[in-house]
Amino acid sequence: MSALNTRCYRTVDYVFTPPAITSVLVAGGGAFPVRRVFCVGRNYAAHAREMGSDPNREPPFFFMKPADALLLKDADMPYPPQSNQLHHEMELVAGIGIGGANIAESDALSHVWGYAAGLDMTRRDLQNAAKKEGKPWDMGKGFDHSAPIGLMAPASRIGHPVSGLIELKVNGTVRQSSDLSKMIWSVPETIAYLSGLVTLAPGDLIFTGTPENVAAVERGDVLEGIVEGVGTVRTRIV
Fold first, then answer.
1. Where would I find the beta strands (DSSP E) of 28-184?
2. DSSP E strands: which ranges in 106-208?
3. What is the pLDDT of residues 147-192, one digit of tens each?
4. Cα 164 → chain centroid
5. CA nearest to 166, candidates 179, 152, 157, 185
6. How far apart are the first and last CA of the chain?
7. Element (H, E) at 47
8. Which of 53, 170, 173, 177 is deepest in the core (most CB within 10 A)?
């Protein structure tokens, strides 16, 4: 065995305990280990308009959240610091089970393990300030607890949704309501494009964008979202 291979089998003395693997529970049992979280920006025309952008079909763009920003099991979400404009964005989430680069659109769905309902929570004031100054959005999007997510539903059981209700209620009142068919870039198109930028891997999540009527929430608000045929997501702002 070479010296290099010998080193591969040595016990690593970490300087501190490695972080636990973030996993999304699967409907029916098991857990989906999460590697990275990609998010598609402005993927519904009406939302693009309300954010002051042209909804014409330009190439998709992406931002990221850390895996440990996921908020699991309907847990409460602490109102984040340094913000007075916490906004909700209800989304369909696709979970990658088979990785790859330059994935063909016609083959993209075979790479999806399952789907979930999720929320891309946003510190809108921080995001807007960063956009105005031409700075990255990271602290507006990738903060602690910024991605509540429901159970992962296996595609082998539910198929691959291309239409159906996507809706969010706040304190029982509908805030966002649309249809998955209104996405500018479909899930296969999104996977094909993203895999041309980075090599996707098992455990990657893709938040596929939000419909219109994003708005602010306050402490005490209860958020309940649904993606028809996929599942639900719930959190309370505390």
1. 31-33, 37-40, 62-65, 70-71, 86-87, 90-96, 112-119, 122-123, 147-148, 153-154, 165-170, 173-179
2. 112-119, 122-123, 147-148, 153-154, 165-170, 173-179, 205-207
3. 999 999 999 999 999 999 999 999 999 999 999 999 999 999 999 9
4. 18
5. 179
6. 56
7. helix 45-50
8. 170
Strand partners, 114: 95, 154
What tokens were used for 19? 């972080």
Model pTM?
Answer: 0.92
Distance CA 58, CA 35 (A): 28
Does the CA dihedral 220-230-178-97 come out positive or negative?
Answer: positive
Q: Where are the beta strands (DSSP E) in 47-158?
A: 62-65, 70-71, 86-87, 90-96, 112-119, 122-123, 147-148, 153-154
Q: Tell me: the pLDDT tens digits for 3-41?
A: 444 455 568 899 999 999 999 999 999 999 999 999 998
* CA neighbor of 68 nearest in space, from 117, 123, 22: 22
Give the angle subtended at the CA of 135 by the CAs of 78 and 55, to the nearest 5°.
85
Q: What number of residues does the chain have?
A: 238
Condensed to tens digits (0 to 9), the pLDDT of residues 120-151 reads 999 999 999 999 999 999 999 999 999 999 99
**What are the pLDDT digits (tens) for 97-125?**
999 999 999 999 999 999 999 999 999 99
Sheet hosting strand 173-179, strand order edge to edge: 173-179, 165-170, 222-227, 231-236
